[in-house]
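In response to the reviewer comment on reproducibility (Comment 2.3), we provide here a single inverse folding case reported in full, input and output, so that an independent group could reproduce the run without further information from us. The structure tokens appear first.
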């Protein structure tokens, strides 16, 4: 969905583990937060679901798997599982195996049987005197049987050697096939094999997906254990101006309130409004048909009231806008082919208090873009990217959540004059500046605009620059 051009930077959140019964752990500890979840696919939006529905279905699935594993392990396997076919044998092992197979029926006689030599003339004359013709015939038949047996052993040995040779050739072919699909860093990349820029752009959001975020335990007040089963949500917050740039990503528990997430969201607009002494504590999340208003502060304004007034007083306009949203913003020419979207009804919107609403109370779609609005008209897209169960490798202290998994690196501008120091002031419509707007460090700004402590001219506007 969003393309993240910046590398992720680790932010140290705090986490306490309860090694003792009193819940106190003075030693500092680092735990790795695993990054689970599906592979990123653009425009992939799941069906309407909820934390409780996911939790019940996944727990039921796990119970079924445990029952299947326990029932199968209780049964005695009739046949042993052999992995000999997966073993890569050396040439010496293959030759030894061929010899053993050739002589497995004649273990006591591993060598070829000796064939008796023909007796000499002198011996034949002596045997002629000691035996008759019948004894000579028996010896002749015995020699023939020995020759036939030795011939059979030779053929068996040759056949086994040929079999072992075929095994060796098959192993060489398998090795060659595996080499074709393996990564060889020394090999040259062909021009046709260069990944397209489109594929690279799609893979950019996955840069930090395989890296684990370390959470350092330090000064979190209190310890609240996480009870199983608990669901963890990966929630992305996007930039208010650069709509498709991810600004932050959090790991939030399903039992946490929406205000716990809102208090962790960083936006430069909040700091600007505080500096101008015009900070507005109001705000809301719009998730599906639910407007979650932050009314913790007595001076907060219910942002949902004008929205409901507009829905009541401008039903036709609201219905047309909703049809356009449901159709995905089809253009006029596309509508001429596809046709108008009919039968779409406005959702029955409702308003709830943000500090009283937990994520498990809401229905949402994984991958869908929802709205976070604050400071009057500062809008952010939020996406619930992933949902999974908490497991032992996760941080087991509820007080550490929401955990910041990703923070966009700030874009720091340097002074346009010296090109060395960071900018602290920005001027607009400055006649002596080389750019409009123009960024200055403190030294360059005062050298250009002041003399003997007096401002040289004032027909421009100047603002304090904060890194966005």
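Designed residues, in position order:
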């Amino acid at each position: 969905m969003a393309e993240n051009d910046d590398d992720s930077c680790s932010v140290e959140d705090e986490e306490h583990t309860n090694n003792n019964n009193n819940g106190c752990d003075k030693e500092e500890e680092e735990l790795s937060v695993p990054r689970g979840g599906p592979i990123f696919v653009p425009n992939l939006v799941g069906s309407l679901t909820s934390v409780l529905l996911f939790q019940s279905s996944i727990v039921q699935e796990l119970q079924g798997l445990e029952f299947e594993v326990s029932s199968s392990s209780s049964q005695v396997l009739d046949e042993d599982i052999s992995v000999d076919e997966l073993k890569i044998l050396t040439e010496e092992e293959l030759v030894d195996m061929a010899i053993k197979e050739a002589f497995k029926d004649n273990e006591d006689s591993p060598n070829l049987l000796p064939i008796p030599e023909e007796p000499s003339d002198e011996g034949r004359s002596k045997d002629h005197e000691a035996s008759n013709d019948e004894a000579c015939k028996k010896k002749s038949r015995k020699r023939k049987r020995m020759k036939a047996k030795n011939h059979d052993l030779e053929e068996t040995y040759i056949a086994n050697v040929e079999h072992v040779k075929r095994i060796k050739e098959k192993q060489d072919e398998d090795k060659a096939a595996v080499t074709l699909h393996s990564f060889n860093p020394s090999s040259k990349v062909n021009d046709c094999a260069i990944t397209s820029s489109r594929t690279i752009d799609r893979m950019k959001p996955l840069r930090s997906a395989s890296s684990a975020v370390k959470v350092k335990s330090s000064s979190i007040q209190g310890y609240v254990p996480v009870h199983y089963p608990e669901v963890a949500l990966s929630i992305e917050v996007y930039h208010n101006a650069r709509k498709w740039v991810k600004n932050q990503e959090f790991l939030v528990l399903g039992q946490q309130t929406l205000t716990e997430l809102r208090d962790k969201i960083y936006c430069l607009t909040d700091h600007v409004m505080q500096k101008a002494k015009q900070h507005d504590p109001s705000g809301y999340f719009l998730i599906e048909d639910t407007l979650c208003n932050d009314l913790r502060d007595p001076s907060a304004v219910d942002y949902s009231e004008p929205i409901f007034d507009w829905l009541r007083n401008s039903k036709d306009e609201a219905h047309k806008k909703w049809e356009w949203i449901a159709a995905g913003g089809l253009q006029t020419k596309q509508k001429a082919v596809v046709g108008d979207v009919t039968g779409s009804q406005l959702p029955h919107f409702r308003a709830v208090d943000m500090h009283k609403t937990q994520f498990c109370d809401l229905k949402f779609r994984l991958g869908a873009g929802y709205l976070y609005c604050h400071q009057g008209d500062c809008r952010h897209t939020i996406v619930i990217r992933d949902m999974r169960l908490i497991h032992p490798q996760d941080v087991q202290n509820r007080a550490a959540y929401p955990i910041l998994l990703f923070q966009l690196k700030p874009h720091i501008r340097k002074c346009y004059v010296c090109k060395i120091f960071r900018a602290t002031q920005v001027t607009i419509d400055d006649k002596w500046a080389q750019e409009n707007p123009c960024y200055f460090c403190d030294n360059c700004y005062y050298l250009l605009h002041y003399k003997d402590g007096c401002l040289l001219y004032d027909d421009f506007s100047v603002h304090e620059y904060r890194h966005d």
